[in-house]
Protein backbone atom coordinates (compact mmCIF):
# COMPACT_ATOMS: atom_id res chain seq x y z
CA UNK A 1 0.00 0.00 0.00
CA UNK A 2 1.63 3.22 -1.17
CA UNK A 3 0.68 6.82 -0.70
CA UNK A 4 -0.01 8.23 -4.16
CA UNK A 5 1.13 11.73 -5.17
CA UNK A 6 -2.53 12.75 -4.79
CA UNK A 7 -2.60 11.44 -1.21
CA UNK A 8 0.52 13.42 -0.38
CA UNK A 9 -0.98 16.55 -1.91
CA UNK A 10 -4.18 16.12 0.08
CA UNK A 11 -2.26 15.65 3.30
CA UNK A 12 -0.16 18.75 2.66
CA UNK A 13 -3.28 20.81 1.91
CA UNK A 14 -4.65 19.81 5.31
CA UNK A 15 -1.36 20.49 7.10
CA UNK A 16 -0.96 23.93 5.49
CA UNK A 17 -4.54 24.81 6.30
CA UNK A 18 -3.99 23.89 9.96
CA UNK A 19 -0.84 26.01 9.99
CA UNK A 20 -2.71 28.95 8.50
CA UNK A 21 -5.60 28.72 10.97
CA UNK A 22 -3.15 28.47 13.88
CA UNK A 23 -1.21 31.49 12.64
CA UNK A 24 -4.42 33.53 12.49
CA UNK A 25 -5.33 32.43 16.02
CA UNK A 26 -1.88 33.30 17.40
CA UNK A 27 -2.00 36.76 15.85
CA UNK A 28 -5.53 37.40 17.15
CA UNK A 29 -4.50 36.40 20.69
CA UNK A 30 -1.31 38.43 20.68
CA UNK A 31 -2.96 41.48 19.11
CA UNK A 32 0.33 42.88 17.88
CA UNK A 33 3.03 40.43 16.80
CA UNK A 34 2.86 38.66 13.45
CA UNK A 35 3.78 35.12 12.50
CA UNK A 36 6.99 35.03 10.51
CA UNK A 37 7.08 32.26 7.92
CA UNK A 38 10.42 30.81 6.82
CA UNK A 39 10.73 28.12 4.18
CA UNK A 40 13.63 25.72 4.12
CA UNK A 41 14.85 23.06 1.74
CA UNK A 42 17.47 20.44 2.27
CA UNK A 43 19.18 18.02 -0.08
CA UNK A 44 19.45 14.43 1.18
CA UNK A 45 22.63 14.05 3.21
CA UNK A 46 25.19 11.32 3.75
CA UNK A 47 24.32 8.27 5.89
CA UNK A 48 20.73 8.20 4.67
CA UNK A 49 19.88 11.60 6.13
CA UNK A 50 16.62 13.00 4.93
CA UNK A 51 16.01 15.56 2.23
CA UNK A 52 12.94 17.67 1.83
CA UNK A 53 11.52 20.95 2.92
CA UNK A 54 9.03 22.79 4.95
CA UNK A 55 7.78 26.05 6.30
CA UNK A 56 8.21 27.26 9.86
CA UNK A 57 5.72 29.76 11.18
CA UNK A 58 6.97 31.41 14.36
CA UNK A 59 5.51 34.24 16.41
CA UNK A 60 7.33 35.96 19.29
CA UNK A 61 5.10 38.52 20.93
CA UNK A 62 4.30 40.02 24.32
CA UNK A 63 1.25 37.84 24.95
CA UNK A 64 2.20 34.83 22.85
CA UNK A 65 5.81 34.62 24.06
CA UNK A 66 6.73 32.03 21.44
CA UNK A 67 4.59 29.78 19.30
CA UNK A 68 5.36 27.76 16.24
CA UNK A 69 3.37 25.96 13.60
CA UNK A 70 5.56 24.00 11.21
CA UNK A 71 4.76 21.98 8.12
CA UNK A 72 7.37 19.67 6.68
CA UNK A 73 7.69 16.85 4.18
CA UNK A 74 10.88 14.81 4.01
CA UNK A 75 12.11 11.64 2.35
CA UNK A 76 15.12 9.51 3.13
CA UNK A 77 16.79 6.25 2.27
CA UNK A 78 16.87 4.82 5.77
CA UNK A 79 14.10 5.30 8.30
CA UNK A 80 15.97 6.13 11.54
CA UNK A 81 13.68 3.96 13.59
CA UNK A 82 13.84 2.60 17.02
CA UNK A 83 11.20 0.21 15.63
CA UNK A 84 12.90 -2.88 14.23
CA UNK A 85 10.35 -3.64 11.53
CA UNK A 86 10.78 -0.27 9.82
CA UNK A 87 14.42 0.43 10.53
CA UNK A 88 16.58 1.57 7.62
CA UNK A 89 13.85 1.38 4.93
CA UNK A 90 13.14 4.22 2.49
CA UNK A 91 10.56 6.62 3.92
CA UNK A 92 8.37 9.66 3.41
CA UNK A 93 7.15 11.69 6.38
CA UNK A 94 4.98 14.79 6.38
CA UNK A 95 3.11 16.60 9.09
CA UNK A 96 2.13 19.73 10.89
CA UNK A 97 3.35 20.38 14.41
CA UNK A 98 2.60 23.20 16.83
CA UNK A 99 3.68 24.23 20.32
CA UNK A 100 2.73 27.40 22.15
CA UNK A 101 4.50 29.05 25.09
CA UNK A 102 2.50 31.95 26.52
CA UNK A 103 3.96 34.75 28.57
CA UNK A 104 1.22 34.57 31.22
CA UNK A 105 1.83 31.72 33.72
CA UNK A 106 -1.93 31.02 33.81
CA UNK A 107 -2.03 30.17 30.11
CA UNK A 108 -1.13 26.53 29.39
CA UNK A 109 1.45 25.19 26.99
CA UNK A 110 -0.14 22.98 24.36
CA UNK A 111 1.16 20.83 21.57
CA UNK A 112 -0.45 19.17 18.57
CA UNK A 113 0.96 17.15 15.72
CA UNK A 114 -0.60 15.12 12.91
CA UNK A 115 1.48 13.26 10.39
CA UNK A 116 1.51 10.71 7.59
CA UNK A 117 4.33 8.23 7.06
CA UNK A 118 5.29 5.83 4.34
CA UNK A 119 8.06 3.37 5.24
CA UNK A 120 8.92 0.66 2.78
CA UNK A 121 5.59 -0.70 1.52
CA UNK A 122 3.48 0.50 4.42
CA UNK A 123 1.86 3.81 5.24
CA UNK A 124 0.24 5.00 8.42
CA UNK A 125 -0.84 8.13 10.23
CA UNK A 126 -0.14 9.31 13.73
CA UNK A 127 -0.52 12.32 15.92
CA UNK A 128 -1.83 13.73 19.11
CA UNK A 129 -2.52 16.78 21.18
CA UNK A 130 -1.80 17.48 24.83
CA UNK A 131 -2.21 20.28 27.33
CA UNK A 132 0.46 21.26 29.86
CA UNK A 133 -0.71 23.93 32.30
CA UNK A 134 1.55 25.41 34.96
CA UNK A 135 -1.57 26.66 36.81
CA UNK A 136 -4.23 23.99 36.47
CA UNK A 137 -7.84 24.92 35.70
CA UNK A 138 -10.27 21.96 35.68
CA UNK A 139 -12.48 23.86 33.20
CA UNK A 140 -9.61 24.05 30.67
CA UNK A 141 -8.74 20.38 31.09
CA UNK A 142 -12.38 19.40 30.63
CA UNK A 143 -12.86 21.55 27.52
CA UNK A 144 -9.65 20.30 25.95
CA UNK A 145 -10.52 16.65 26.51
CA UNK A 146 -14.14 17.12 25.39
CA UNK A 147 -12.99 18.59 22.07
CA UNK A 148 -10.64 15.67 21.46
CA UNK A 149 -13.33 13.19 22.49
CA UNK A 150 -15.63 14.71 19.88
CA UNK A 151 -12.88 14.44 17.29
CA UNK A 152 -12.75 10.70 18.04
CA UNK A 153 -16.51 10.25 17.93
CA UNK A 154 -16.48 9.05 14.31
CA UNK A 155 -14.12 6.19 15.22
CA UNK A 156 -14.97 2.84 16.73
CA UNK A 157 -16.18 2.80 20.32
CA UNK A 158 -13.41 3.19 22.92
CA UNK A 159 -11.07 5.07 20.60
CA UNK A 160 -10.88 8.22 22.70
CA UNK A 161 -10.25 6.25 25.90
CA UNK A 162 -7.53 4.24 24.20
CA UNK A 163 -5.75 7.26 22.75
CA UNK A 164 -6.11 9.17 26.03
CA UNK A 165 -4.38 6.33 27.90
CA UNK A 166 -1.68 6.19 25.20
CA UNK A 167 -1.05 9.89 25.71
CA UNK A 168 -0.66 9.50 29.49
CA UNK A 169 1.82 6.73 28.92
CA UNK A 170 3.78 8.57 26.23
CA UNK A 171 4.15 11.81 28.15
CA UNK A 172 5.25 10.19 31.39
CA UNK A 173 8.61 11.55 32.53
CA UNK A 174 10.38 8.71 34.37
CA UNK A 175 13.02 10.84 36.05
CA UNK A 176 10.34 13.19 37.41
CA UNK A 177 7.89 10.39 38.12
CA UNK A 178 5.04 12.46 36.72
CA UNK A 179 3.25 13.07 33.44
CA UNK A 180 4.16 16.23 31.64
CA UNK A 181 0.69 17.78 31.81
CA UNK A 182 -3.01 16.97 32.01
CA UNK A 183 -3.00 14.76 28.95
CA UNK A 184 -4.89 14.67 25.70
CA UNK A 185 -4.66 11.98 23.04
CA UNK A 186 -1.83 10.21 21.26
CA UNK A 187 -2.01 7.67 18.45
CA UNK A 188 0.36 6.11 15.95
CA UNK A 189 0.59 3.40 13.29
CA UNK A 190 -3.07 3.84 12.23
CA UNK A 191 -3.37 1.97 8.95
CA UNK A 192 -6.23 1.54 6.49
CA UNK A 193 -8.18 3.68 4.05
CA UNK A 194 -6.30 6.90 3.35
CA UNK A 195 -9.36 9.15 3.04
CA UNK A 196 -10.75 7.94 6.37
CA UNK A 197 -7.38 8.36 8.08
CA UNK A 198 -6.95 11.88 6.72
CA UNK A 199 -10.47 12.77 7.84
CA UNK A 200 -9.50 11.70 11.35
CA UNK A 201 -6.37 13.86 11.29
CA UNK A 202 -8.59 16.71 10.11
CA UNK A 203 -11.00 16.15 13.00
CA UNK A 204 -8.21 16.08 15.61
CA UNK A 205 -6.35 19.11 14.31
CA UNK A 206 -9.52 21.13 13.78
CA UNK A 207 -10.67 20.36 17.33
CA UNK A 208 -7.35 21.69 18.61
CA UNK A 209 -7.51 24.82 16.46
CA UNK A 210 -10.98 25.50 17.89
CA UNK A 211 -10.57 24.73 21.59
CA UNK A 212 -7.03 25.80 22.47
CA UNK A 213 -7.38 29.48 21.47
CA UNK A 214 -10.58 29.63 23.57
CA UNK A 215 -8.63 28.41 26.59
CA UNK A 216 -5.83 30.90 25.94
CA UNK A 217 -8.24 33.83 25.60
CA UNK A 218 -9.57 33.31 29.12
CA UNK A 219 -6.12 32.90 30.73
CA UNK A 220 -3.70 35.13 28.89
CA UNK A 221 -4.65 38.37 30.64
CA UNK A 222 -5.13 37.13 34.20
CA UNK A 223 -3.04 38.89 36.86
CA UNK A 224 0.04 37.09 38.20
CA UNK A 225 2.99 37.79 40.50
CA UNK A 226 6.74 37.91 39.86
CA UNK A 227 6.99 34.69 41.86
CA UNK A 228 4.44 33.02 39.51
CA UNK A 229 6.49 34.13 36.51
CA UNK A 230 9.77 32.93 37.99
CA UNK A 231 8.26 29.56 38.92
CA UNK A 232 6.87 29.21 35.41
CA UNK A 233 10.41 29.50 34.00
CA UNK A 234 11.69 26.67 36.23
CA UNK A 235 8.61 24.59 35.46
CA UNK A 236 9.35 25.00 31.74
CA UNK A 237 12.57 23.09 32.38
CA UNK A 238 10.53 19.90 32.60
CA UNK A 239 9.07 20.60 29.21
CA UNK A 240 12.52 21.16 27.74
CA UNK A 241 13.81 17.98 29.40
CA UNK A 242 10.96 15.93 28.00
CA UNK A 243 11.46 17.29 24.49
CA UNK A 244 15.18 16.63 24.45
CA UNK A 245 15.48 13.43 26.49
CA UNK A 246 12.36 11.46 25.59
CA UNK A 247 10.29 12.88 22.73
CA UNK A 248 10.41 10.62 19.69
CA UNK A 249 9.51 13.41 17.29
CA UNK A 250 12.46 15.54 18.40
CA UNK A 251 14.80 12.56 18.34
CA UNK A 252 13.55 11.49 14.91
CA UNK A 253 14.14 14.99 13.60
CA UNK A 254 17.61 15.43 15.05
CA UNK A 255 18.81 11.92 14.19
CA UNK A 256 17.45 11.97 10.64
CA UNK A 257 19.29 15.21 9.96
CA UNK A 258 16.13 17.32 9.88
CA UNK A 259 16.08 21.09 9.98
CA UNK A 260 17.45 21.84 13.47
CA UNK A 261 15.90 25.29 13.79
CA UNK A 262 12.48 23.96 12.83
CA UNK A 263 12.70 21.08 15.29
CA UNK A 264 13.76 23.33 18.14
CA UNK A 265 10.93 25.80 17.56
CA UNK A 266 9.19 23.65 20.16
CA UNK A 267 11.64 24.65 22.90
CA UNK A 268 10.42 27.19 25.46
CA UNK A 269 11.63 30.76 24.78
CA UNK A 270 13.15 31.22 28.26
CA UNK A 271 13.89 28.45 30.76
CA UNK A 272 15.51 28.36 34.16
CA UNK A 273 17.20 25.46 35.87
CA UNK B 1 39.64 -7.39 39.95
CA UNK B 2 37.47 -5.75 42.56
CA UNK B 3 37.64 -2.35 44.17
CA UNK B 4 38.26 -2.92 47.86
CA UNK B 5 36.50 -0.86 50.54
CA UNK B 6 39.85 0.93 51.00
CA UNK B 7 39.96 1.80 47.28
CA UNK B 8 36.47 3.24 47.46
CA UNK B 9 37.39 5.27 50.53
CA UNK B 10 40.48 6.65 48.82
CA UNK B 11 38.49 7.61 45.73
CA UNK B 12 35.87 9.37 47.83
CA UNK B 13 38.52 11.28 49.74
CA UNK B 14 39.86 12.59 46.42
CA UNK B 15 36.40 13.43 45.10
CA UNK B 16 35.42 15.29 48.27
CA UNK B 17 38.68 17.19 48.27
CA UNK B 18 38.11 18.28 44.67
CA UNK B 19 34.60 19.40 45.61
CA UNK B 20 35.93 21.39 48.56
CA UNK B 21 38.64 23.10 46.52
CA UNK B 22 36.13 23.98 43.80
CA UNK B 23 33.70 25.39 46.35
CA UNK B 24 36.41 27.63 47.76
CA UNK B 25 37.31 28.82 44.25
CA UNK B 26 33.66 29.55 43.36
CA UNK B 27 33.20 31.59 46.55
CA UNK B 28 36.42 33.53 45.99
CA UNK B 29 35.40 34.40 42.43
CA UNK B 30 31.87 35.40 43.34
CA UNK B 31 32.98 37.39 46.37
CA UNK B 32 29.54 37.21 47.98
CA UNK B 33 27.47 34.08 47.41
CA UNK B 34 28.20 30.87 49.29
CA UNK B 35 28.09 27.27 48.13
CA UNK B 36 25.08 25.46 49.57
CA UNK B 37 25.71 21.80 50.26
CA UNK B 38 22.81 19.33 50.20
CA UNK B 39 23.20 15.65 50.94
CA UNK B 40 20.86 13.05 49.52
CA UNK B 41 20.34 9.37 50.02
CA UNK B 42 18.30 6.98 47.98
CA UNK B 43 17.25 3.39 48.56
CA UNK B 44 17.64 1.07 45.57
CA UNK B 45 14.47 1.20 43.44
CA UNK B 46 12.49 -1.25 41.36
CA UNK B 47 13.87 -2.40 37.97
CA UNK B 48 17.44 -2.37 39.16
CA UNK B 49 17.48 1.35 39.85
CA UNK B 50 20.46 2.49 41.81
CA UNK B 51 20.69 3.26 45.49
CA UNK B 52 23.30 5.39 47.14
CA UNK B 53 23.97 8.92 48.10
CA UNK B 54 25.90 12.04 47.52
CA UNK B 55 26.38 15.69 48.23
CA UNK B 56 25.50 18.50 45.86
CA UNK B 57 27.35 21.77 46.24
CA UNK B 58 25.60 24.58 44.38
CA UNK B 59 26.31 28.29 44.27
CA UNK B 60 24.02 30.88 42.68
CA UNK B 61 25.57 34.31 42.80
CA UNK B 62 25.86 37.52 40.81
CA UNK B 63 29.23 36.70 39.28
CA UNK B 64 29.04 32.91 39.38
CA UNK B 65 25.50 32.65 38.02
CA UNK B 66 25.28 28.94 38.77
CA UNK B 67 27.95 26.39 39.50
CA UNK B 68 27.79 22.93 40.93
CA UNK B 69 30.27 20.44 42.30
CA UNK B 70 28.67 17.11 43.12
CA UNK B 71 30.04 13.97 44.68
CA UNK B 72 28.05 10.76 44.49
CA UNK B 73 28.46 7.04 45.05
CA UNK B 74 25.77 4.65 43.91
CA UNK B 75 25.31 0.91 43.52
CA UNK B 76 22.76 -1.04 41.54
CA UNK B 77 21.84 -4.53 40.40
CA UNK B 78 21.83 -3.80 36.69
CA UNK B 79 24.30 -1.48 34.99
CA UNK B 80 22.10 0.57 32.61
CA UNK B 81 24.65 0.37 29.85
CA UNK B 82 24.54 1.06 26.23
CA UNK B 83 27.70 -1.09 26.26
CA UNK B 84 26.76 -4.72 25.67
CA UNK B 85 29.57 -6.28 27.69
CA UNK B 86 28.59 -4.55 30.91
CA UNK B 87 24.84 -4.33 30.46
CA UNK B 88 22.68 -5.41 33.40
CA UNK B 89 25.55 -6.45 35.71
CA UNK B 90 25.81 -5.29 39.34
CA UNK B 91 27.75 -2.06 39.59
CA UNK B 92 29.30 0.61 41.78
CA UNK B 93 29.91 4.12 40.46
CA UNK B 94 31.40 7.10 42.26
CA UNK B 95 32.70 10.41 41.07
CA UNK B 96 32.90 14.14 41.30
CA UNK B 97 31.38 16.32 38.61
CA UNK B 98 31.35 20.07 38.15
CA UNK B 99 29.90 22.58 35.71
CA UNK B 100 30.07 26.35 35.94
CA UNK B 101 27.84 28.93 34.25
CA UNK B 102 29.10 32.47 34.73
CA UNK B 103 26.98 35.58 34.42
CA UNK B 104 29.54 37.40 32.25
CA UNK B 105 29.38 36.30 28.58
CA UNK B 106 33.18 36.55 28.34
CA UNK B 107 33.67 33.87 31.01
CA UNK B 108 33.58 30.32 29.59
CA UNK B 109 31.47 27.41 30.74
CA UNK B 110 33.63 24.50 31.86
CA UNK B 111 32.98 20.98 32.96
CA UNK B 112 35.06 18.34 34.69
CA UNK B 113 34.29 14.85 35.92
CA UNK B 114 36.40 12.00 37.27
CA UNK B 115 34.89 8.70 38.28
CA UNK B 116 35.55 5.11 39.25
CA UNK B 117 33.33 2.23 38.19
CA UNK B 118 33.05 -1.39 39.12
CA UNK B 119 30.79 -3.49 36.88
CA UNK B 120 30.64 -7.21 37.45
CA UNK B 121 34.25 -8.31 37.96
CA UNK B 122 35.89 -5.34 36.30
CA UNK B 123 36.75 -1.86 37.48
CA UNK B 124 37.89 1.13 35.55
CA UNK B 125 38.20 4.90 35.79
CA UNK B 126 37.06 7.61 33.41
CA UNK B 127 36.68 11.32 33.23
CA UNK B 128 37.49 14.47 31.39
CA UNK B 129 37.40 18.21 31.32
CA UNK B 130 36.33 20.59 28.58
CA UNK B 131 36.01 24.31 28.02
CA UNK B 132 33.07 25.95 26.27
CA UNK B 133 33.52 29.67 25.74
CA UNK B 134 30.84 31.87 24.15
CA UNK B 135 33.51 34.50 23.46
CA UNK B 136 36.68 32.68 22.47
CA UNK B 137 40.08 33.76 23.80
CA UNK B 138 43.05 31.82 22.37
CA UNK B 139 44.97 32.49 25.59
CA UNK B 140 42.29 30.70 27.65
CA UNK B 141 42.15 27.76 25.28
CA UNK B 142 45.95 27.44 25.34
CA UNK B 143 46.16 27.62 29.14
CA UNK B 144 43.38 25.11 29.62
CA UNK B 145 44.93 22.60 27.23
CA UNK B 146 48.42 23.12 28.63
CA UNK B 147 47.22 22.31 32.15
CA UNK B 148 45.57 19.11 30.95
CA UNK B 149 48.62 18.18 28.92
CA UNK B 150 50.73 18.51 32.05
CA UNK B 151 48.26 16.32 33.93
CA UNK B 152 48.84 13.62 31.27
CA UNK B 153 52.63 13.96 31.35
CA UNK B 154 53.06 11.02 33.74
CA UNK B 155 51.29 8.70 31.31
CA UNK B 156 52.71 6.93 28.28
CA UNK B 157 53.66 9.09 25.31
CA UNK B 158 50.71 10.24 23.18
CA UNK B 159 48.19 10.05 26.02
CA UNK B 160 47.24 13.73 25.93
CA UNK B 161 46.81 13.71 22.14
CA UNK B 162 44.67 10.60 22.33
CA UNK B 163 42.40 11.93 25.07
CA UNK B 164 42.16 15.32 23.36
CA UNK B 165 40.92 13.65 20.16
CA UNK B 166 38.50 11.53 22.19
CA UNK B 167 37.10 14.71 23.72
CA UNK B 168 36.55 16.35 20.32
CA UNK B 169 34.74 13.26 19.17
CA UNK B 170 32.61 12.92 22.30
CA UNK B 171 31.48 16.54 22.41
CA UNK B 172 30.55 16.72 18.74
CA UNK B 173 26.92 17.77 18.31
CA UNK B 174 25.66 16.07 15.14
CA UNK B 175 22.54 18.19 14.70
CA UNK B 176 24.61 21.39 14.99
CA UNK B 177 27.54 19.94 13.04
CA UNK B 178 29.97 21.48 15.50
CA UNK B 179 31.79 20.58 18.70
CA UNK B 180 30.36 22.04 21.85
CA UNK B 181 33.41 24.09 22.74
CA UNK B 182 37.18 24.28 22.36
CA UNK B 183 37.80 20.82 23.73
CA UNK B 184 39.86 19.37 26.52
CA UNK B 185 40.36 15.71 27.30
CA UNK B 186 38.07 12.72 27.69
CA UNK B 187 38.94 9.16 28.68
CA UNK B 188 37.09 6.07 29.80
CA UNK B 189 37.59 2.39 30.58
CA UNK B 190 41.13 2.92 31.91
CA UNK B 191 42.01 -0.31 33.68
CA UNK B 192 45.04 -1.38 35.69
CA UNK B 193 46.65 -0.56 39.02
CA UNK B 194 44.23 1.32 41.24
CA UNK B 195 46.78 3.61 42.87
CA UNK B 196 48.18 4.68 39.49
CA UNK B 197 44.69 5.25 38.10
CA UNK B 198 43.65 7.31 41.11
CA UNK B 199 46.85 9.38 40.84
CA UNK B 200 45.89 10.18 37.25
CA UNK B 201 42.38 11.29 38.30
CA UNK B 202 44.04 13.44 40.94
CA UNK B 203 46.34 15.02 38.34
CA UNK B 204 43.47 15.79 35.96
CA UNK B 205 41.10 17.20 38.58
CA UNK B 206 43.84 19.21 40.28
CA UNK B 207 44.89 20.73 36.95
CA UNK B 208 41.31 21.83 36.41
CA UNK B 209 40.97 23.27 39.92
CA UNK B 210 44.12 25.29 39.28
CA UNK B 211 43.65 26.58 35.73
CA UNK B 212 39.93 27.20 35.36
CA UNK B 213 39.59 29.75 38.20
CA UNK B 214 42.56 31.64 36.68
CA UNK B 215 40.70 31.88 33.38
CA UNK B 216 37.51 33.00 35.12
CA UNK B 217 39.30 35.71 37.10
CA UNK B 218 40.48 37.45 33.96
CA UNK B 219 37.08 37.27 32.18
CA UNK B 220 34.39 37.62 34.80
CA UNK B 221 34.54 41.40 35.12
CA UNK B 222 35.06 42.41 31.46
CA UNK B 223 32.49 44.86 30.08
CA UNK B 224 29.77 43.46 27.80
CA UNK B 225 26.60 44.68 26.07
CA UNK B 226 22.95 43.66 26.44
CA UNK B 227 23.25 42.06 23.03
CA UNK B 228 26.20 39.94 24.25
CA UNK B 229 24.17 38.83 27.25
CA UNK B 230 21.10 37.97 25.17
CA UNK B 231 23.21 36.02 22.66
CA UNK B 232 24.84 34.14 25.52
CA UNK B 233 21.42 32.89 26.64
CA UNK B 234 20.60 31.52 23.17
CA UNK B 235 24.07 30.01 22.88
CA UNK B 236 23.49 28.22 26.19
CA UNK B 237 20.69 26.34 24.42
CA UNK B 238 23.32 24.26 22.64
CA UNK B 239 24.82 23.31 25.96
CA UNK B 240 21.42 22.28 27.29
CA UNK B 241 20.71 20.31 24.11
CA UNK B 242 23.98 18.45 24.35
CA UNK B 243 23.44 17.58 28.01
CA UNK B 244 19.94 16.25 27.47
CA UNK B 245 20.18 14.68 24.02
CA UNK B 246 23.68 13.22 23.89
CA UNK B 247 25.59 13.26 27.16
CA UNK B 248 26.12 9.76 28.50
CA UNK B 249 26.57 10.95 32.08
CA UNK B 250 23.19 12.68 32.10
CA UNK B 251 21.51 9.73 30.41
CA UNK B 252 23.16 7.26 32.80
CA UNK B 253 21.94 9.31 35.75
CA UNK B 254 18.38 9.74 34.56
CA UNK B 255 17.97 6.16 33.31
CA UNK B 256 19.51 4.58 36.41
CA UNK B 257 17.09 6.49 38.61
CA UNK B 258 19.75 8.80 40.01
CA UNK B 259 19.03 11.95 41.96
CA UNK B 260 17.33 14.16 39.37
CA UNK B 261 18.13 17.47 41.03
CA UNK B 262 21.80 16.55 41.33
CA UNK B 263 22.01 15.47 37.70
CA UNK B 264 20.35 18.63 36.46
CA UNK B 265 22.66 20.92 38.44
CA UNK B 266 24.62 20.91 35.20
CA UNK B 267 21.87 22.70 33.30
CA UNK B 268 22.39 26.41 32.59
CA UNK B 269 20.52 28.71 35.00
CA UNK B 270 18.73 30.66 32.24
CA UNK B 271 18.42 29.59 28.61
CA UNK B 272 16.65 31.03 25.61
CA UNK B 273 15.49 29.25 22.49
Explain the overall architecture:
The structure is a homodimer of 273-residue chains. Chain A is α+β, with helices and mostly antiparallel strands and 273 residues long. The first copy, chain A, has a single domain (5-266), classed as Coproporphyrinogen III oxidase, aerobic (oxygen-dependent coproporphyrinogen oxidase). Helix content of chain A is 41%, strand content 27%. Chain A is built from seven helices and ten strands. A seven-stranded antiparallel β-sheet of chain A has the order 1-2-3-4-5-6-9. In chain A, strands 7-8 form a two-stranded antiparallel ribbon. In chain A, a hairpin with a 2-residue loop joins strand 5 (109-119) and strand 6. The longest helix of chain A has 26 residues, at 5-30. The mean pLDDT of chain A is 92. The interface between A and B is medium-sized, with 24 and 24 residues.
What is this structure's SSE topology?
The structure is a homodimer of 273-residue chains.
Chain A: H1 5-30, E1 36-42, E2 51-59, E3 66-76, E4 91-101, E5 109-119, E6 122-132, H2 138-151, H3 159-170, E7 172-173, E8 178-179, E9 183-190, H4 194-219, H5 226-246, H6 248-255, H7 260-263, E10 270-272
Antiparallel strand pairs in A: 1-2, 2-3, 3-4, 4-5, 5-6, 6-9, 7-8
Helix pairs in contact in A: 1-4, 2-4, 5-6
Number of helices of chain A: 7
Characterize the largest beta sheet of chain A: strand count, sense, and whether it forms a barrel: 7 strands, antiparallel
- Can you name the CATH architecture of chain A? 3-Layer(aba) Sandwich
Shape of chain A: globular
Overall number of structural domains of chain A: 1
Q: What is the average of the pLDDT values of chain A?
A: 92
Radius of gyration of chain A: 18 Å
Element order, helices and strands of chain A? HEEEEEEHHEEEHHHHE
Total count of strands of chain A: 10
Low-confidence stretches of chain A: none
